[in-house]
Design goal:
With 67 residues, the protein is of the alpha+beta class. It is built from one helix and two strands; from the N terminus they run αββ. The protein has one domain.
């Protein structure tokens, strides 16, 4: 469903609910992206997303792995 521009800064914050998903995610507590970010950063990585309101979102991350 995408994320409104005004809500993008809330995504990786603890309990950072976005208003546009109130009716979709009624039982979540807002920890998923916070935990994901912490894990990725613990590997010196980065997590990011692209989103278009009413179209959808793509999330991705980069970490360096040893061979």
């Amino acid at each position: 469903m995408g994320i409104k521009r005004k809500d993008k800064s809330k995504l990786f914050k603890l309990f950072g609910f976005v208003q546009s998903t109130d009716s979709v995610n009624t039982r979540g507590i807002g920890l998923g992206l916070v935990i994901s970010k912490k894990i990725v950063e613990s590997f010196d990585g980065q997590i990011a997303f692209k989103s278009k309101w009413q179209k959808g979102s793509i999330f991705g991350f980069r970490i360096a792995l040893e061979n």
